[in-house]
Amino acid sequence: EPLPGRPHHGGGQIGVVDSVIDGSFLFAGISEGVVYSLEAVGGRGARSVEVSGITLHRSGVTHVTLELLAPGSVEIRLVDETGAVIRGARITIDGRPYDTAIEPTGDDVAYRFTELTPGRHRIHVESSLGPPQDFTIDVVAGVNALPVKVDAGVRVDGFVIDKKGLGVEGALVTIERDGASGGAADARTTRTRPGGEFAFGSLTVGAWRVSASAVGSATVEDVTVDAPRRGVRLTLATLGSARIQLTREAGGPVEGDFEIRRSRADGDVIHGSGTLKNGVVTIEGFDGRPETLEISVAGYSPVVKEVRVPPEGETDLGAVVMRTGHRIEGLLVGADGVGIQGAFVLVGHLGRVVSDRNGKWSFPGVPTGPISILVVSEFHLKKTLELESTTSAPLRIELSSGAHVAGTVVGSDGKGLGGLPIAFVPLDGEKPGEITERLRTDEDGTFEVRIPPGRYKIEAKEDGDAVAVLLADVLLTDGDRQAPTLVYRAK
Fold it and tell me: Any bridge partners for residue 24, and if so which?
């Protein structure tokens, strides 16, 4: 085969011949003055090392000896810095995935590659324990059993088991930074392998919360561990269920479809729906932690109930009387008349809804009588409506953008002052001199506020100091955006 980049007639492979019984071979009638390479391929994957730099001459014969080498096979075992076997990895050699993953037996698992030419090869490893890593190995003829050490960094591992102590395969394990230990938020998940084994690597030193769940079961309480940690055991419990009987004011069960919203202290919210059977709502998936249940049925005021349902078995939460109510709905728009998406509409103490992409919202089961509505939008001023009576007519609510002020307060040395109380005091309008907005600066001295249009004085006061005026007079208009740097000089 002519070497690349060298002049030759034609291109690619020139020819293939078979060696005869004594191993000899002959190429004849090929071009002189061309540099060639030769390679031999035998049976059962045997190959020779490629011989290159061969130049043919007009007279005579060029003799080349090619030595066939038996192929090698590799069994690679991945281990961490402690020598513990790493399972569930993805491994390739020279870009080729492994031929077979030997089934784990005890603490042993290997990845097998066959028919490898003796010599140097590159291994690429990807696992849940850290970033991808590359290694170089030398292969010889025969079976090569190689331990490859993977840098797993700080590691937390263990097992998920059921009440009988048996490992649970396929359980979802979550590990997240414990807020009490500081550090940036970080959460990861993995699935347990046979025997319930799981592992996380490349963690930072400190406290981590670990939990697990499977179909119909979960850990009742999260386990907090200090990384690195080996051998964590998470026990799954069957999740509990609860039933609530919904009755009408006049007696008898409530019928129809229901919606349920479950809120937990950690911020998780679970939504569900179904059809009532003789007024009974059955709810599943409780793990013993406190929850707030909000049950809505068309034509009735929502029912809110604080519960703590234990795992294992069913808990009767008793009967609840549902009172008739009305549906109120409306449209949120900006000053340009365009609908506002993603705003929160809080209806009294009953709950809240979020406006859709067109600014529309709807809330069912509002009792007859006065009701307060608060609208909160990230890019608009808050707005409160006090309705004297429940209305079925759609409400059109227009929100003002207000003025957006995102500034910085610095000391006389030019450094940001964190935690400094500041206030916006109106200089005109209906209530001049009364503080409109109070807030504190962030750690770097920055602050951000959305405030109604008008003329303001901006003040600041640290404990024990007199009030200092940061800005004596500033005019803010609707839609205005300002980013002032204010200097605080203690008095």
Answer: none
- At 406, is the pLDDT very low, low, confident or very high (cuts 50, 70, 90)? very high
Peptide bond into 104 cis (omega under 30): no
- Its sign, for the CA torsion 270, 356, 372, 279, is negative
Q: What one-letter code names the amino acid at 258? A: F
pLDDT band of 160, cuts 50, 70, 90: very high
Query: Is 178 in contact with 207 (CB distance < 8 Å)?
Result: yes
For tokens 């929502």, what's the residue? 302
Q: Which amino acid is at 430?
A: E
- Residues 258, 259, 262, 267: what is their CA dihedral angle, to the nearest 10 degrees? -170
Which residues have CB under 8 Å from 143's CB, separation 6+?
72, 73, 74, 75
Q: What's at 399, amino acid-wise?
A: L
Task: Write down the mean pLDDT value for the chain.
Answer: 82
- Please tell me the distance from the alpha carbon of residue 74 to that of residue 56, in angstroms, as a whole number: 39
**Cβ atoms within 10 A of the Cβ of 255, count?**
14
- Quote the DSSP letter at residue 25: -
DSSP track, 255-319: -SEEEEEEEETTS-EEEEEEE-BTTEEEEEEE-SS-EEEEEEETTB--EEEEE-PPSSSEEEEEE
User: Which DSSP letter does residue 420 get?
Assistant: -
pLDDT at 283: 92
Residues 6 or more apart whose Cβ sits within 8 Å of residue 204:
154, 177, 183, 186, 227
First to last CA, the chain: 89
Report yes or no: 245 and 173 within 8 Å, Cβ to Cβ: no
**Which of 151, 146, 198 has its CA nearest to residue 172?**
198
Q: Can you tell me the mean pLDDT for 237-248?
A: 93
List the structure tokens of 197: 């084994």
Residues whose CB falls within 8 Å of the CB of residue 20, separated by 6 or more in sequence, listed in order: none
Total length of the chain: 491
Lowest mean pLDDT across 118-122, 130-134, 184-188, 355-359: 184-188
Q: What is the pTM of this model?
A: 0.44
Alpha carbon distances (Å) from 17 to 13, 29, 39, 307: 12, 13, 11, 83
Write the pLDDT tens digit of every residue in 443-467: 899 999 988 888 999 988 776 566 7
Closest CA to 240 of 269, 283, 177: 283
Do 461 and 488 contact (CB within 8 A), yes or no? no
